[in-house]
Design a protein that fits this description.
Number of helices: 8
Order of helices and strands: HEHHEHEHEHHEEEEH
Radius of gyration: 21 Å
CATH class: Alpha Beta
Distance between the termini: 70 Å
CATH superfamily: Vaccinia Virus protein VP39
Oligomer: single chain
Bound molecules: S-adenosylmethionine
């Protein structure tokens, strides 16, 4: 509906068959698999999704692109102003990044739904990853609402009927194309600093 208002298109990429089988070495997929993951989870058919958009959105502003990301995303065309990734697996995130990040316009925003999975978020701070695939510094990732995903948070103290007020943080996160997250910490330098301090001490 927002796309209709601002005169843009929403491109929707999905298998419309749910999640793919897990790939070995995928930290998120293995975690889910250990819990009894079944391929096809979250599946909604093309017709079902289209019907929902017709009821609640503006189907004329959307184009739907069914298929596994490795097949559909290489055919993407056109600059992207904003993208929202909610794809669960690390391998799926990787497919989205390598195929879509180059189309994100400078200043464009990437939203990510998986802020609760640290290995997933770490990609956005990995100098190695961004150097290898995009020859640039990592963009970083900021949480919308709950801050960095470290341990548990105390949430909503006023909801007395909810006995479980300690929650895992859940949040959408974002980064902006053009920002750089530089990790200006080197243990060697810290050790040298510590030595200098010790030798200078009386
Ligand atoms: C948790 S669902 C979220 C879907 C949607 N954002 C929603 O909230 O209804 C994750 C989606 O990612 C899709 N997906 C994950 N990996 C995929 C891949 N490699 N190729 C195509 N679709 C994929 C699944 O089909 C599923 O619809």
């Amino acid at each position: 509906m927002i796309c209709a208002i601002v005169g843009r298109k929403l491109k929707v990429y999905d298998s419309f068959e749910g999640l793919p089988p897990t790939t070995e070495g995928d930290p998120i997929a293995e975690k889910t698999f250990a819990k009894g993951f079944i391929p096809g989870l979250f599946g909604g058919s093309l017709d079902e999704v289209k019907g929902n958009i017709e009821r609640f959105g503006e189907v004329a502003s959307c184009s739907l692109h069914p298929g596994w990301f490795e097949h559909s995303l290489p055919h993407h065309e056109g600059k992207i102003a904003m993208m929202f990734l909610d794809v669960d697996f690390y391998s799926s995130l990787h497919e989205c990044l390598i195929h879509l990040w180059p189309y994100l316009a400078p200043g464009g925003i990437l939203f990510l739904d998986e802020y609760t999975n640290l290995p997933y978020c770490a990609v956005f701070y990995s100098e190695k990853y961004w150097q290898k695939y995009f020859s640039c510094a990592p963009p970083g990732l900021l949480g919308v609402g709950t801050g960095v995903q470290l341990g548990k948070i105390y949430w909503d103290p006023d909801v007395r009927q909810d006995p479980c007020q300690i929650r895992s943080p859940e949040s959408v996160a974002f980064c902006i194309k053009g920002t750089q997250a530089l990790w200006d910490f080197y243990p060697d330098e810290m050790a040298e600093g510590a030595q200098a301090k010790t030798s200078a001490a009386p």
